[in-house]
Each structure stands twice: as structure tokens, then as C-alpha cells.
Amino acid sequence: MADEINVSGTISPYQAQTYSPGQNEKNTLTIESYFKLLAAQLANQDMTNPMDNSEMMAQMTQMAMVQSLTAMTDSMKTSTAVTTQTYAAGLIGQEVTVAVTEENEYGQAIPTGVKYGKVCSVNLSGETPTVRLEGDSKDYPLSYIMGMGKIDDPYAEKKDEDGNGSETNSGTDKNSESGTAGSSMKEE
Question: What is the pLDDT of residue 134?
């Protein structure tokens, strides 16, 4: 199976793009197809020079190892997903500090500050869980959570050093949609 094929894009013929074919029954070797190949090889082998038993056993062992590693990888992915979802669901009602980001000219999210708030909901329907804070309509990916409770804003120091602002860590976020201060949050 080919890993990636370099193709030229329609927008710019000089910019190489890649294409990775998805796995399907025609381009993936399963244990059943391996045994079919082995049976065909044994049926059509040269009787004067038969296949070596140790070579056949080595191939079978390698195929069994690949199958076991695939099963273990799938199990680890499932376990990780369940753990992440359980952790995200446990955040409801907890006060957290999340990173607030802005996109730079390359479309990358760059952290600019923090926001404090209680987690009021968790969305598990996407690829990665997202949390929503009370009084804020924005969903924050789980990876944006910087800590439990209120922690110092590490980005305020960068603003002070650059001379772009003399912000102190007051718990407010000028970039957020709601602009809610951490000290004026309602306790429920």
C-alpha cells in the first residue's frame, strides 16, 4: 500500500500536495487474506524445492504480531477516548482557567490571555470534547484548559515585556465575547 502520492494542485501547479488513500478491503492485508495467500503458495509450490517450515512459521508469527498490535492500538484509542470523556464530564461545575486565543496571519491560534469561569456544559459530539463557561457562548477545546481554579495569566507578562500593554492579572479578558470578570461571577 502506498503511503502518500505527490500530486499537483489545481490552484498552483508548482505547489506539491499529498493524497493518502483510505484503507479498504482491496488495499489492506487482513489475517484472512494472509491465510488465502499462504494456502495458494503451498498449493502451487515447487515440489522439488518446498517452502521452508521455519520461514512459514516466521511469517505466521509476524502476521499474528501485527494483528495483536492493531488490536492493542484500537483498545488504547478506545480507552483514551473514554478517559477523556469522563474527565471532561467531571469538569461540570468546576472553576477553570482557559486560554483565550486569536488567529495570526497564518491561521494558527495564538494564546493572548486567560479567562476564568465555571464549566456549565461539555460537548462530547465532536472529535475532541469542548467546554462552555457560564456567561460565555464560546466553546473551548479541552486542551485550552490551563488549570483548575484561578491561575496567574502567563500572557500578561509577555504584554508587559513587549510594552504592548500594562495589564495586570485582574481576571478580566478584553478579548472574550462576554468580558466577564472572574471576581464578579455568580456562585451557585
Answer: 93
